[in-house]
Amino acid sequence: MRIDIITVLPQLLESPFQHSILKRAIDKGLVEVNLINLRDYSTQKQKSVDDYAFGGGAGMVMGIEPIANCITALKAERTYDEVIYTSPDGELLNQKISNQLSTLKNIIILCGHYKGVDQRVRDHFITKEISIGDYVLSGGELAAAVISDSIIRLIPGAMSDETSALTDSFQDNLLAPPVYTRPADYKGLKVPEILLSGHTANIENWRHEQSLLRTMERRPDLLK
Ligand code: SAH
Questions:
Q1: In the listed set 95, 128, 152, which residue is the last one of a domain according to the structure?
Q2: Nearest-CA neighbor of 6 among 73, 52, 90, 51?
Q3: What is the pLDDT of residues 186-197, one digit of tens each?
Q4: Pairing, β 106-110 against β 128-131
Q5: Ligand 1 neighbour 87 (Cβ under 6 A)
Q6: 11 plus 101 within the same structural domain
Q7: Which of 13, 81, 90, 221 is least surrounded by CB atoms within 10 angstroms?
Q8: Position 161 in a domain
């Protein structure tokens, strides 16, 4: 898989891909992540990519020219399955969307800034708009990192234990059960007996039950 992230702040996105599961997936060649500096596609003096909003009002708007130049150049090299724009008014990211995206070959993620991008970009170049929550960020970079992380960990081989992703929250519309590790007794705080029993089937049943209970308690909407 290849993820091309278009941004005015590539430095901001370097660290998230240099650690842990994402780094390993990149090192293994399961995914290639490219940080593309939008300013490289600006034809303006001082490489600016934004301008005042038509009609007035506070805040700058990212213009169509550099973005169109950048996306067109990328598309000349390969076909993209999705061109995603990170936006608070986009579809709310969830595990189902991440699963779908993880099966694709090439995607672009465009990070907005300031007041966002010229609507014509969204109308003519973007195929999918994703929000990571009902709050406003300063820029799309952190959203792009969140989207990429949730996708990359699902690519087969990215996690050392293949089954781990399948037992995470939301994967089957249930929240994950509680987990414990050593010591089995911490100053009288004990781990549920069943987890020490070694009886795999009973442990599976207990975990499923706990998942259900937790989901009913915290996210009954998932069970509908
Ligand atoms: N004026 C816009 C917000 C702009 S915030 C509005 O009110 O809708 C600047 C940029 O940050 C956006 O263009 C988008 O790319 C990114 N961003 C902000 N909040 C986000 C969110 N919840 N999810 C995804 N991207 C977000």
A1: 152
A2: 73
A3: 999 999 999 999
A4: unpaired
A5: yes
A6: yes
A7: 221
A8: no
